[in-house]
């Protein structure tokens, strides 16, 4: 009897001609996915939901400098306990209570300024300069979004409302947002998420117009909802619960349910269909990452030429680190979508913005004015049009 | 139990889609905590295109990729339920490769397998080939309780009665197993990580655990290639975890439907030892993790990355890449820069602001015990960084640094040494400088920079030369320090540098810059200097000047300029930020004296 050796299956599979294996396994057949374990369909069909079109979208950066010293901000977060600490407890203005880092609360903070909101935000901020941590650090993010409909009407909206009362009031005046609000020209304020640098400047908007429609979503915690009331809001608060919300033809709000740092949940982005051009995405931070953003939009919406036309915002690939670091590369990922106009804000990172430019992407550069530090991205006072 | 971190706080009832999304949301939250990632040996996650709730991930101890695929979601009268299948995709080098079926093995050897795996949610042919088991997640209507269970065969076996012959032997002997996959153990690894993330997000460990078993099955490969299932002694195993209130009385949500044996443990009792170490029992309280079961979580020291490399190799460019990458991932990084010569240039180039510390007191490898420890101590007290990158001076010998790590090991945890090598000058420097050789020897990862300035054959020769000094470190090629930093961190994680730094290594003092007669001379910039006079001056410098740096104000250029030079090549470009001090130049080379350097 011969004792024939065993062949390593790896060697067998690698050595055997592809044709042999294909024949072999083809004959083995029945590797079907229709066993009882598998209920899902192999491919998700695109839904092509038609949300109309608009003619033009223009975004003006009222302020994109969320804060001025990253070391100070990150240092505060780390000292307070890290990325999972509730933002309202850190002790930053406008919710400082004078007790020092990580001993804050919404209630103790608002108590010191409640009576001054929103009529005297300057005084409120002066009070907080003494009670809050590092009061010179806050800036804020806020953008003016102008949408021209197909019939020629221009609709104005605010995306987010910044952080520092002082800084944001200055920025609002510089861009004449204060006048637009007072004249009731701004048709709505979209609060993308509850983060300090996008939302805590809410009283500044309230000072000029406390009745405009305000759009939030079901990711806001009770502190945020209370702050809206305590800031003197008297209008209709819209709390989005569904993934998609239509605003005007060609404009929707997309909601992403995703946990974000420092006890914040969910973020919304604005999506537009610009006639004859295609889809435009506008977001503040895009914490969900552009992969998820573009995926969702592509699966669900119908837009002209079936094309991604433009994007503006804080561009990150994904909140996760990829297990294959080659794919953790925003420069490559962004290139694959074929955007025709790209605007970054500071969240994107200097080097990344530079690399986009170096890669020849259609990046709209800025002017580095009003304390924005690099022309490689759209800074304070800069605009982009789609 | 707090559900508001995992589900929208403005809703009091879950939807089936939200439950389907819960595992990935829980992981997103948990991965914000580095201790959780260390506890679960987490490497990273990629969502499948077009299917946000389907994803692949890697755990450090396994070369292959795990997959998580939602299959179904539905509402029942009192709950929302989502079903998933779990998968594992081996690499050809994986020990587990031979345990999979032949068709699976053949697929795994395919050229585009990795791309298929990333997209596996859209590749149904892969699902049964690489399937491990099933999981179900249930959230009760008022979100008072969550139930999470997993089921898989202990061993998923496919027997081949006829066997399979190759050309000169048996690939599978008749009657032996074509597939013998430890589906239960492997699937538990993935399930346990997700369960740990749920504990983390909910802020409490499970209230109950149920183990159950049911009759299992195996499959036979028939002569025509089809499969026939038949009952087997090999059991189907199940584990169920419950969080929240009122879990007793709902054991049916936790056990296998066909269970013939079942054990229930309540969390306040004694858990079976093999279960007690799972992350779901610890992830809610990482601060007080038991140092015996989870030593990685109690280490509060920042990670130290040492960035070394000879003069002008491009360390600062790489440092900038690493900084931006880490910041984009919300990691707090502080920098220590060591500049030999009285004035630090790099501090102005690196936008670190207050979290960059320049150690100007000579070379860190010489004044080690004092300045580095103090530097780390100052940074950790002021900023509590998660990581510190030490950019050493170009003349620092990292082996000196590492041999004396006892003086700073309690302050920082050495992660890796990255050595940047200048492709243009490296061969010369390796020939004549012990320090350069030690920098290569001491690296966990070698980054060969400026490859655009040499031809490919020279790069190959250099690689071979580097390999002589360091046979094991990964070699990465870049120009302008442009490297996807994730690749660098990945290479560093996989490099095995630990043994090099054992305290028992011989305590020979390695050569330092004074031994090799390197020194630095710092000169103020002459008041009226123009581009032309600068070029003339630098053109007649003695050959011993190897490196040149400075910040200049030229008469014919309005803004401050940075001067960088290596060997005979130099260039200026705008500093890009304000500069209030006096302009200066630093010359670094062998036995320089200021007279020979005057313009």
What does this structure look like?
The complex is a heterodimer of chains A (386) and B (599). Chain A has helices at 9-15, 18-28, 70-80, 106-111, 121-131, 165-174, 177-182, 196-199, 202-208, 222-230, 290-300, 330-337, 350-358, and strands at residues 49-50, 56-63, 142-148, 154-159, 186-190, 214-217, 237-240, 244-248, 251-260, 264-274, 278-282, 301-302, 308-313, 341-344, 383-385. Chain A starts with 8 loop residues before the first helix and ends with a strand. Chain A is α/β, with parallel strands linked by helices and 386 residues long. Chain A contains 13 helices and 15 strands. Chain B is an alpha/beta fold and 599 residues long. In chain B, the strands form four sheets. In chain B, strands 1, 2, 3, 4, 5, 6, 7, 10, 11, 12 and 13 form an eleven-stranded mixed sheet that branches. Chain B has a seven-stranded parallel sheet with strand order 16-15-17-14-18-19-20, with helices on both faces. In chain B, 49% of the residues are buried. Mean pLDDT of chain B is 82; it is low at 360-369 and 496-508. The chains are: A alpha/beta (386), B alpha/beta (599). The interface between A and B is large, with 80 and 94 residues.
Largest sheet of chain A: 7 strands, mixed
Number of strands of chain A: 15
Main pleated sheet of chain B: 11 strands, mixed
Helical fraction of chain B: 25-40%
Shape of chain B: elongated
* Series of H and E elements of chain A: HHEEHHHEEHHEHHEHEEEEEHEEHEHE
Which oligomerization state do the chains in this entry correspond to? heterodimer
* Unreliable sequence segments of chain A: none
Alpha-carbon distance between the two ends of chain A: 80 Å
Please state roughly what percent of the residues of chain A sit in beta strands, choosing from under 5%, 5-15%, 15-25%, 25-35%, 35-45% or over 45%. Answer: 15-25%
Coarse morphology of chain A: globular
Number of discrete helical segments of chain A: 13
Low-confidence stretches of chain B: 360-369, 496-508
Spatially, the strands of the biggest sheet of chain A line up as 7-6-5-4-3-2-15
Radius of gyration of chain A: 25 Å
Range of strand content of chain B? 25-35%
**DSSP helix fraction of chain A:** 25-40%
Overall structural class of chain A, as computed from helix and strand content, comes to: alpha/beta
Please state the average pLDDT score of chain B.
82
Span between termini of chain B: 73 Å
Structural class of chain B: alpha/beta
